[in-house]
Design goal:
By secondary structure, this protein is an alpha+beta fold. It has 5 helices and 13 strands. The longest helix is centred in the first third of the chain and has 19 residues. The structure holds adenosine-5'-triphosphate and manganese (II) ion (MN) (2 copies). This is DNA ligase (ATP).
Length: 308
């Protein structure tokens, strides 16, 4: 242990390469979580988080003064960004300002140093910008929806994704809902993947119009769950598994086993504070097989109109 060579047993992640200024700054004052506390959290979850964030365009929710201060949803790199953060160029946006990516824990620490309290990756990687390697179905309960109904929606999305030959996983959003994610072998391009997720959302809404809607019209959402498929289009993002949320209580978007869904675990149940206990208690990581479970999306039939 402790050698420089990455052998079978890798040394624990070293997070001190990036210097944190103002480590005692309170990012979540209500929960007493500081910048340094955030860095410790990410060092702890890094091995699990890495396959879900490395090598992707990232949008960030930056909160230089913590969650009670101003928030910026930022997609482009800026001057003074830590050099451990990678700058990447969208091949379809030549001449545009670079986008943001990370390759390792140092990069993530660079984001912590920049007060990125939420990390929102694309569903494709810089190795293949046009072919997503995951789908995220974002379940957004409207006012008055019971938690069990959100769980039921997640189970229905799960079944429909399985019917399409995919392997769905579930996580809390750290906010109000659940996200059902399915890893893809990068094959189908963005428009086909979007069409597939749109058809899935619309089928759910058509089959259970009292429960689900597939369009974001606010007035129609009361008492229903929006099956938000729009995370699945080029340039769109969804919060990363393990990312913290800039909301009270320092919640995180926590990967779950399907069997854990129930009344005890609400959408913001897991936090920076209680995740270490969860990790210590978990027999196995419920998302350990996420990448290995990737399957190609078999797009059945044509969605029409897409000529050539
Ligand atoms: P909740 O469970 O509360 O809905 P959520 O993360 O799913 O949490 P949504 O409002 O449903 O929140 O947003 C879905 C995704 O849209 C976010 O995870 C994020 O990646 C993206 N998003 C959020 N804010 C913005 C924004 N200002 N501009 C563009 N995309 C955003
Ligand atoms: Mn949501
Ligand atoms: Mn949404």
């Amino acid at each position: 242990a402790g050698g420089q060579n990455a052998g079978a047993l890798e040394p624990p992640p070293q997070r001190r390469v990036v210097r944190l200024t103002h480590p005692d700054r309170l990012y979540w004052p209500d929960e007493g979580v500081t910048k340094e506390g955030l860095a410790d959290y990410y060092a702890e979850v890094w091995r699990r988080m890495a396959p879900l964030v490395v090598g992707r365009p990232l949008a960030l929710l930056r909160c230089p003064n913590g969650i009670t201060g101003e928030k910026f949803f930022q997609k482009h790199a800026w001057k003074g960004l830590n050099p451990k953060v990678a700058l990447i160029h969208d091949p379809q946006e030549t001449g545009d300002a670079p986008l943001i990516s990370i390759n390792d824990l140092d990069g993530l620490m660079g984001l912590v140093q920049s007060a990125a309290l939420e990390i929102h990756p694309w569903g494709s990687t810089v190795a293949d910008w046009e072919r997503p390697d995951m789908i995220v179905m974002d379940l957004d309960p409207g006012e008055g929806v019971a938690w069990q109904a959100v769980i039921d929606a997640a189970q229905e999305v799960r079944q429909r994704l399985r019917d399409a030959g995919l392997s769905p996983f579930v996580k809390t959003s750290g906010g109000k809902g659940l996200h059902v994610a399915a890893p893809l072998q990068p094959a189908a391009k963005w428009p086909a993947v979007k069409a597939f997720t749109k058809a899935l959302a619309e089928a759910m809404a058509a089959d259970s119009p009292d429960l689900y809607v597939a369009t974001i019209t606010k007035s129609k959402r009361r008492g229903k769950i929006l099956i938000d498929y729009l995370r699945n289009q080029r340039g769109a993002t969804a919060v990363a598994a393990w990312s913290t949320r800039a909301r009270p209580g320092a919640p995180v978007s926590a990967p779950l086993a399907w069997s854990e869904l129930g009344p005890e675990i609400g959408p913001a149940y897991f936090t920076v504070t209680n995740i270490p206990t969860r990790l210590a208690a978990l027999a196995s990581d419920p998302w350990a097989d996420f990448r290995a479970a990737a399957a190609p999306l078999e797009v059945k039939g044509r969605t029409g109109g897409a000529g050539a």
